[in-house]
Design brief:
Elements: E1 2-10, E2 13-19, E3 24-29, H1 35-45, E4 61-69, H2 73-80, E5 89-97, E6 102-106, E7 109-110, H3 113-120, E8 124-127, H4 131-134, H5 141-149, H6 152-180, H7 182-199, H8 203-217, H9 219-234, H10 242-255, H11 261-290, H12 295-315, H13 319-337, H14 339-385, E9 392-403, E10 406-415, E11 423-424, H15 425-428, H16 431-446, E12 453-457, H17 465-478, E13 483-487, H18 491-495, E14 499-508, E15 511-518, H19 521-533, H20 539-554
Parallel strand pairs: 3-13, 3-14, 8-12, 12-13
Antiparallel strand pairs: 1-2, 1-4, 4-5, 5-6, 6-7, 9-10, 10-11, 14-15
Length: 555
Amino acid sequence: MLRELTIENVAVIEKASIDFKSGFTCLTGETGAGKSIIIDSINAIMGDRVSKDVIRTGAQKASIVAVFENLNDKIIKTAQEFDIDISEECIVSRIISAEGKNSARINGMPVPVSVIKSIFSEAINIHGQHDNQSLLDSTKHLDILDSFGTDPVVFKVYSDIYEDYCAVSKKIKELSSLEKSKQEDLELLQFQVDEIYNADLSEEEEKNLDEQKKLIKNSENIMSALSTAYQMLSGDDEFMGACSALQEAEGEVSAVSEFSEKMSAISETLIDISDKAQDIMYEIRNIIDDFEFDPKLIDEIEERLDTYYKLKRKYGGSVEAVLDYYNRASEKLDNIEFAQEKLEQLKAQRSEILAKLKIQADKLTKERQKQFDLMAGEIQKSLEFLNMPFVKLSLHIEEKEYSADGKDQLEFYIVTNKGETPKPLAKIASGGELSRIMLAIKSVMAEKQITDTMIFDEIDAGVSGSASLKIGRLLRQTAQNRQVFCVTHSPQIAAFADTHLYIEKQTKDNATFTSVRQLEYKQRVEEIARIISGENITATAMQNAQEMLANAQNS
């Protein structure tokens, strides 16, 4: 629960430290004294955005610090997900500087405001005057009902099926879109695949073609060099070739090799060199004999290499890139060619899912009707207690397209007087009736939710004195298991509070200051009397105030 709130330099509050207790606390004071500032400060602690405009005139920064204790397990677990331990005590602070810089901390640790919002979104439930109007928005009714108690298992099953339905529908949409442009894509892809396939490319062939091209273009130089080399190895009538010279040299050394191991080794080496020279000579001879220069062959090689060049320019800078493009284009071609078949399969799959979705959506509708009947019964009991005995709530459901929250477009209908036909809540409820209906909903919802603290800002607006008496009693009843704060101008509601805080505005040295103090019994009597009669407190008002307090505490 919220144990303490310290506000510094926020609007007209220079400094105020408020100790909150469990049970029902009311906040009263003159109009403009600063009650709304306290509510706004609590909103800031819950992660609402705060403008630098809230800084008190003349101050450089504003600060809001809240101390929580005994927070529920869900909030503690959420904090642990951010590596924050708030199991014992939690101090949340917001600093707003005149330069527009804001900072937030939890137990001294700097955190983004979004983290505060994530952790404390369910710690405090604030009901402002404008929230009554949310009842007039039928799109909010589904959330109210589901928050009351729609079976999460039923909803989860529906959600899972709906996700499958959306996934298949997305694939169908993509394939249907592909089908429209299929013919153009099909013709282009088929041409590209055929072009690459018919070219029959390979990196090895390209390499061989390059080598052949170089050989043919340099054939004259090659033949001249090879012929000269052959002649130098073989010799002719005019001079001895290298091979013959090596043989003679080996013969001479061999003749004297018996006299020296070195000469014997040289002889063996010359034999080896002579054999290799002979092999080289014959190999050169074979190359010369086999070498044919056909002018037409260079044209064929050039034409083939031009095919490689064009395809690499169109589909990639290398044979590998062209072949990779071929594989991807072939796969895409297969997808397009079989798209219709896949589309029919997906449509059949979607029909199966849709049948399951309808069954589960019907279950969800029945579950909501069941929960509404329970909720309406409890709300009607509360409204009867709040001087609206003839109110009957009913649920108007229309079917909409399947969505993440089901197929139900629902709206609360109401009858406020006997003999009337149920009509939309927005059309027949007055301001005072809305206040009581919302309070009844909040009190019923409080039993279903884990909110530690509930705040009602002028829930009594437009409500008569006798109804206010009932509201006060209901607020005290709601506060049995949680903190309940109520900003009020109703003496009847104030009388039911366990703790009464008075917000007072004072002017000093041309400056306005707001303070908050807890009232003792005598002060409470005076404040309730002031609310009854205004600034001129009469003896009758004092007596009425005493009676209100006595009756409230004894009821």
